[in-house]
Design goal:
The chain has about 290 residues and is α/β, with parallel strands linked by helices. It has one domain: Rossmann fold (3-Layer(aba) Sandwich). Helix content is about 35%, strand content about 15%. It contains eight helices and nine strands. Helix 1 packs across helix 6 and helix 3 runs parallel beside helix 4. The structure holds nicotinamide-adenine-dinucleotide.
Length: about 290
């Protein structure tokens, strides 16, 4: 029997890329799922489907009625998807509204979609590199856009909600999450432009693994507020990681060896806190880094 058997779970943003995979996954694990999204999705099946806005106190209060656990995915999921004010305010207010109301209502646990962008470098308009590789949760933050800021502040909101109401929160700092086809296309794009992926550490996660991570984070026995990176073990770049770092970050310290195509992100917290290992790698052949990049 799954630990989620019979649990009543609210999933916000359920009609999106991750939500449409996470909802059936959680239902398969035995959860009774309520969805709250501002869009309709004809194929989405749940026990209670609500159309509403995660910024609305009333819509979130209705959605939280009778709920044990929360998965908060709703967001404007990219810097350029809407004007800066809309991206920041939608994401910041939604996370505050959902976690504050869930905490006040006595919900024991929430899982929040964070982002690798919480450390600010992937969308940074300056030519900055991580302070070291593999990046970890202590990596210095340098934020130059409103989407990254919203994800960074979402983690502080989670800590506040835990301190105020005792709700346990796991914020999953997702990297690029997509299906096999889109991930393979992204990998092909890196063949001729490998440098473009460096600040995301060439990381990725299959949507099926994102759904698994959400289940694990909902059922883990951690307490408090935690935020950490998670990714597939290997990069989506077709080249060896140390060759890429030699070429594009030769002066950046490395804290350890990174054999093969090992992703230059410390995945230890994902393993130790929620027992997560990616199970759905995409098959990317390893190529020698061409001389022109060396
Ligand atoms: N997909 C990725 O590569 C990726 C990477 C890092 C983080 N994330 C985060 O994961 C979460 C889910 O991402 P996704 O790829 O599924 O995004 P998506 O854009 O496909 O889905 C977002 C969902 O949120 C809903 N939504 C947006 N604003 C809302 C509001 N005000 N009220 C109610 N619903 C609202 C949308 O209708 C949509 O269903 C987001 O928080 C995103 O920032 C995604």
């Amino acid at each position: 029997m799954s630990a989620l058997d019979g649990a009543r779970v609210l999933v916000t943003g359920a009609t999106g890329r991750i939500g449409t995979v996470a909802v059936p996954h959680l239902r398969e694990a035995g959860a009774h799922v309520t969805t709250l999204s501002n869009a309709e999705h004809p194929g989405l099946e749940a026990d209670r489907v609500l159309v509403g806005d995660t910024r609305s106190q009333e819509d979130v209060a209705t959605a939280l009625d009778g709920v044990d656990l929360v998965v908060h995915l709703a967001a404007l999921a990219h810097r350029d998807i809407a004007p800066p004010y809309d991206v920041y305010s939608t994401n910041a207010v939604s996370t505050f509204n959902v976690l504050a109301q869930a905490g006040a209502a006595g919900v024991s646990r929430a899982v929040v979609a964070g982002s690798i962008n919480a450390y600010g470098l992937p969308m940074n308009r300056h030519e900055v590199l991580p302070a070291y590789f593999p990046i970890d949760t202590d990596i210095p933050v340098d934020i130059a856009d409103w989407y990254s800021l919203s994800k960074h502040h979402g983690e502080s909101t989670a800590t506040m909600a835990w301190r105020q109401w005792g709700i346990d929160v796991v914020t999953l700092r997702f990297p690029h999450v997509h299906n096999t086809e889109a991930l393979l296309a992204a990998s092909k794009g890196l063949v001729d432009d490998p440098q473009s992926g460096i600040r995301e550490c060439w990381s990725y996660l299959h949507t099926l693994d994102a759904a698994r991570a959400i289940e694990l984070a909902l059922t883990a026995n951690t307490t408090g507020a935690h935020a950490f990176f998670l990714a597939a073990d290997e990069t989506i770049a077709p080249y060896r990681t140390e060759d890429l770092l030699d070429a594009f970050a030769p002066h950046t310290p490395r804290l350890r060896r990174l054999p093969g195509r090992q992703v230059p992100i410390d995945l230890t917290p994902a393993r130790t806190l929620i027992g997560f290992e990616a199970h759905h790698p995409v098959a990317v052949p390893t190529l020698d880094l061409p001389e022109r990049f060396r």
